[in-house]
């Protein structure tokens, strides 16, 4: 140990270097400190003082101030992912920019009876101004009236009076299936039927009591495929393919009821965390009572499914109260801090 200390001492001693500095006044030597100018001002130009001033050099390596805006909300990030999946599968996005819809497109065209409880003010927001819509394709409206009140195409209909006054009422749309109805009607007006795949992801409104899992407005993800002779097998297959792209493979279907689809199926997936089957969507084959009055060929079927955007977003971002996801209780820091959405597929 002593040897080691001595060795170090000798090494330091014999390798010592001496460094000296000589300091003298340079050309710019001054006893007053002047600050270099940062900005060239109009006054300097007017007085000509800029000629004698020294200016600070630009620092092109300085980092900019991060902008305070420009963060995407988690719902928008998850929406982008779902959109990508639909586009990969060859679907076309439907126009859904109308939040206000008539009862005709939201309910009647979908063969939802005028006495259906969902049309009640407890479930639907009615618009007071403009209270009613007027621009309907009248020949189609008449065929809708016919199928509701008298039946046709082998269906009995509802055998109740169908009133245009009910159909004209403006509401906030309760589902984007209203947009699917508009698009399928438009498709039926084309000279020659061509198979289509449509999707949309947009906002819908329901007059619900708000709690930690319900809001009076939320987003629906909706897909539909129209082609000759599609079956329940096609519907289950395409839903399986869609959810596989989200990393969800354990699916179950449960018979359900929708006024506009037959058969109808709720979609369940096995949640590994909760160790149980949870409902993730609704689906079905649109009824002939909806499609034939539109004018679609008899052998064309349309399969469709829908799910909410909020539920997968809450799972993905571990948010347990929907009111902290949208609405006045949203914490903006949550929006800034959350990473982009990459669904585990
Ligand atoms: N419109 C349904 C809903 O609001 C979802 C759905 C879409 C069901 C298409 C069947 C077919 O829940």
Automatic annotation (TrEMBL):
**GO BP, sorted A to Z:** phenylalanyl-tRNA aminoacylation
Q: Which domain of life is it from?
A: Eukaryota
What are the protein's UniProt keywords? Aminoacyl-tRNA synthetase, ATP-binding, Cytoplasm, Ligase, Magnesium, Metal-binding, Nucleotide-binding, Protein biosynthesis
Q: Does the keyword DNA-binding apply?
A: no
Indicate whether Magnesium appears among the record's keywords. yes
- Where in the cell does this protein reside? Cytoplasm
Please report the stretch or stretches of sequence annotated as the Aminoacyl-transfer RNA synthetases class-II family profile domain. 77-328
Q: What EC designation does it have?
A: 6.1.1.20
Main localization of the protein described in the UniProt heading: cytoplasm
Per UniProt, the enzyme's principal EC class comes to: ligase
Listed GO molecular functions?
Answer: ATP binding; metal ion binding; phenylalanine-tRNA ligase activity; tRNA binding
The record's annotation in PROSITE patterns points to: AA_TRNA_LIGASE_II
Cite the SUPFAM superfamilies for this sequence. Class II aaRS and biotin synthetases (SSF55681)
Q: Which InterPro entries match?
A: aa-tRNA-synth_II (IPR006195), aa-tRNA-synth_II/BPL/LPL (IPR045864), Phe-tRNA-synth_IIc_asu (IPR004529), Phenylalanyl-tRNA_Synthase (IPR002319)
Q: Which Gene3D superfamilies match?
A: Bira Bifunctional Protein, Domain 2
User: Would you tell me the Gene Ontology cellular component terms?
Assistant: cytosol; phenylalanine-tRNA ligase complex
Q: Which family does it belong to?
A: Belongs to the class-II aminoacyl-tRNA synthetase family. Phe-tRNA synthetase alpha subunit type 2 subfamily.
NCBIfam families per UniProt: pheS, PRK04172.1
- By what name is this protein known? phenylalanine--tRNA ligase
């Amino acid at each position: 140990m002593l040897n080691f200390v001595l060795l170090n001492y000798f090494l330091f001693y014999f390798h010592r270097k001496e460094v000296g500095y000589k300091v003298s006044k340079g050309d710019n030597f001054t006893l007053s400190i002047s600050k270099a100018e940062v900005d060239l001002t109009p006054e300097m130009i007017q007085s000509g003082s800029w000629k004698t001033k020294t200016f600070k050099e630009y620092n092109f390596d300085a980092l900019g101030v991060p902008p305070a805006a420009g963060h995407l909300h988690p719902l928008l990030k998850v929406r982008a992912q779902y959109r990508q999946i639909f586009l990969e599968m060859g679907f076309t996005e439907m126009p859904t920019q109308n939040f206000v819809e008539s009862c005709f497109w939201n309910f009647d065209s979908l063969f939802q009876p005028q006495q259906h409880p969902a049309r009640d003010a407890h479930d639907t927001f009615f618009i007071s101004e403009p209270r009613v819509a007027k621009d309907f394709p009248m020949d189609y409206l008449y065929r809708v009236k016919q199928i509701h009140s008298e039946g046709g195409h082998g269906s009995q209909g509802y055998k109740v009076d169908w009133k245009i006054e009910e159909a004209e009422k403006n509401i906030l749309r309760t589902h984007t299936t209203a947009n699917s109805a508009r698009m399928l009607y438009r498709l039926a007006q084309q000279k020659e039927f061509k198979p289509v795949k449509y999707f949309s992801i947009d906002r819908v409104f329901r007059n619900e009591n708000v709690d930690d899992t319900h809001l009076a407005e939320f987003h629906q993800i909706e897909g539909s495929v129209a082609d000759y002779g599609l079956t329940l097998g096609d519907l289950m297959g395409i839903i399986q393919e869609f959810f596989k792209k989200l990393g969800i493979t354990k699916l179950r279907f449960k018979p359900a009821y929708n006024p506009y689809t037959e058969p109808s199926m709720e979609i369940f997936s096995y949640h590994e965390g909760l160790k149980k089957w949870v409902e993730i969507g609704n689906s079905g084959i649109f009824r002939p009572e909806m499609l034939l009055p539109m004018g679609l060929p008899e052998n064309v079927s349309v399969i469709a499914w829908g799910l909410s955007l909020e539920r997968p977003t809450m799972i993905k971002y571990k948010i347990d109260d929907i009111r902290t996801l949208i609405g006045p209780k949203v914490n903006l820091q949550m929006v800034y801090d959350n990473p982009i959405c990459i669904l585990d597929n």
